[in-house]
Every structure is written in structure tokens, then in C-alpha cells.
Amino acid sequence: MKRVLSVFLIVALYISMLAGCTDNTGVDPADGAPELPSTPVPTIEPAPVTAKTDLIGFVVKDETTYATCTMMYGFLQTAAELGNPSMLLKYDDKNTTSMQAVQQGIDAGCKGIIILNPSGANDNTISFAKSNGLFVISAVDKDESEADVNVYVDSENHQFEMCNAALDRMTERSISKKGGRILIYGYDPTPLYEKCLETVKEFYPQYGVLSFRRTTTSREDAINELAEYLLTHRGICSLVAIGEADAAVARDAREKIRKQVENKNIPEEASAIEGVPNENGYTLPEISTALYETPEITIFGNGFTDENIKLIEKNAIRGASIIPYYDIAVNCVMLMDRLLKGETLPSYAKVNRPIVRQDTLEKYMTVYGEVKELFNIDKAE
User: Fold this and answer.
1) Backbone phi, then psi, for 189, in 5-degree steps?
2) Dihedral (C-alpha) 250, 155, 366, 374: value to the nearest 10 degrees?
3) Alpha-carbon span 120 to 116, nearest angstrom
4) Helix (H, G, I), strand (E, B), or coil: what is residue 9?
């Protein structure tokens, strides 16, 4: 079934690309407004336009990033499965605007429009669509626009959930009696460190929490500074990497100090920091000397990047919290279908960020493979 759908999606994409390549520079002398092209309605069989189906459009910037392509794929596939004819309404902010894309959808007969609205950039476009009688769903940031529903990604709790996952993993490894530490690592670790510290104090008092700020964009320098920190702060058993590239740095730093420990090439000053209060007056619990020996650090990362994918496949990192672009698009289309059927929906719908692990990676890779094939992209960035 997926392969059949892919064929239909390719047809739909081809038609939408034809629409996106039409010249939009013509000007009507009557009002000086750009003349919008006449665009055929790209339907995805087996869902012809009937009395029971309404055409829906997806207003999206004309680009080939993994995020955008995955959302387009999710939009087209879900619309096809629900029996809704659909079209992509692309703009480039140079020759065409998002408002022109909406007008193109109106001219084609769209009844509902999904609009990407990062940081409220398309609030005016949403207002324009609503003023023309369309149902509107906004994504991906939480925004107070005029959209009927705002679908947004959890941007607050996902890293906190990674901290919990890291702490649970420490418990699985029977570290609870050894006073192991969890390290929060990245360019700005303080907010997450403070949240994690609250959890540890209340639920995991046997563990300690540390934070280390990355100070350089150079990967090699970042590896060296983190490795030095890990050597002088022994007993770290879990590490939560905040930035998309931070997990790979953490993995390399871990391997570097592992070799140093195995070869007994350890600086004299490298010892566990015992009972030393940090800047917030927090005192670390005592640590077992058994954790001094081999640095076994479980790493959790952020982002569905090619590098993180490989690290998960090799079990070099335990998992990564990702923005579920495909799921966002699926939710948008399903909510639009309900609006078109006359349902009244809440103004906001939250999509949680999952933690992708080795045992759940395959389903995300299936979507990734389809997206790469359809849109000819070579990496997830």
C-alpha cells in the first residue's frame, strides 16, 4: 500500500512543482497587484473531488530541507489515506509570498489550509486565509494567531524527559548505591540543569547532578575540553547532550578518556569531586570508588541527524529526542479533516517529542527513506 501511495505522491509532487514554477511576475494595470497563475488542482487518487471530500492545501516554503520535505510527505500521504484531495502551495519569499500561496489555494477551491508559521511569521497570512472563509491550521510553534487550531511541538518538557530517561537508565544499571552523576552538557545547560536538579532532589537523592557549558564551536576543541572535565569529575554515568551536534562530541570525549583510563594515562588532579557544593549550594552525594575505574557513560542526544542516527544504530548513544515532523503533518491533516466535517476543536494541540532509541529507530528510518526518495535529499539536517 505504501508503494502505491508513493506513486500517487510523486504525481502530486510533480503537479505542485509545475505550479511552483509558474511565472508570478505579471501585474494587472488595474490595481498593480501581482497576477496569480491559474493552477490545476493536484489530486491524489484514489480520492477524487466529490461532494464528500474537500480540497485542502499546505502552504509551505519552497525548500528541500529534511523538515519541510518530511512534513510535505506526511501531509500528502495522510490526505490520501483519509480521502481528501490535496495540493502543495509553495512560496519562496522572493517571487512569491505565503499570502499569494493562500490566494492560489483559494482560486483552486481549497476549503482548508495548513500554514507553517514559525515564530508567528505568517500571522498576517493566517488572518488573510480566515477572512476568505477558509479553515486554517497553524504549525509548528505555539502562537496566538487566528487559526482554528494551532498544532505545536513541545519545546519545554522533552529535555526534561531525557533527564528522566537518563536517571532511569542509571537505576537499571544498579548505580543507585554508588552515587553516580548525571551531566547536562551544551552551550546553555543551566535551564535544564535546574529542572533536573529538582527531580533528583525529590526522586533520586542518591544521584548527583552536574552541568558543563560548551565554550567552542570547534569540534576538536569541544571534545578536548569535555574530556578534561570528565577526567576531573569521575563517576559521571549519564550525559544529556542539548545541541544536535553535542552527542557526537560527548561520544568522542567518552572514548578519549576511556583509552586514557585503560592506559593509566590520567592526570594527578583527576579525581572524583566529593561533597563539594556548587554555586547553588547543592552538595553532591558520596560516590563509590568503583565508579572511578572505567568511564561507562550513557549518552542521550537531541535531533534526528545523520550522525545521531548512526550513533543510535551502533548503540553509541542510548537515544535522541527528535522533532516529529511527519507526526506533526499527520496531526494537522487529521484535525483539518475533523474541521471540514463540522467538529469544534480546541485552539491548541500539542505534539510530544519522542525519544528515538535503537528498538524504535526503524519506523523513523522508513519514513526517512521514503522522503529521501521522493524529494531527492541526501541527509537529515
Assistant:
1) -80, -15
2) -110
3) 9
4) helix
- pLDDT single digits (tens) 316-334: 999 999 999 999 999 999 9
Give the C-alpha separation, 43 to 55, whole Å: 8
pLDDT digits (tens, 9 = 90+) for 126-161: 999 999 999 999 998 887 889 999 999 987 788 788
Arch. (CATH architecture) of 2-155+323-375: 3-Layer(aba) Sandwich (3.40)
Q: 174-295 domain in CATH 3.40.50?
A: yes
pLDDT confidence tier of residue 19, bands split at 50, 70 and 90: very low
* Residue 22: all three cell numbers together: 509558474
CA 255 to chain centre: 27
Task: Establish whether domains 2-155+323-375 and 174-295 are of one fold.
Answer: yes
Q: Which of 36-50, 98-112, 123-137, 150-164 bottoms out in mean pLDDT, i.e. has the lowest?
A: 36-50
SS3 state at 168: helix
Between the CA atoms of 53, 55, 60 and 63, what dihedral angle is there, to the nearest 10 degrees?
90
Give pTM, 2 decimals. 0.80
Domain boundaries defined on the chain: 2-155+323-375, 174-295
Burial class (CB in 10 A: 0-12, 13-18, 19+), 86: buried
**Cβ neighbours of residue 145 closer than 8 Å, sequence gap 6 or more:** 117, 120, 122, 123, 126, 127, 138
Q: CA–CA separation, 29 vs 97, rounded Å?
A: 20
**Contact between residue 181 and residue 233 where contact means Cβ atoms under 8 Å apart:** yes
Contact present, 367 and 309 (Cβ < 8 Å) = no
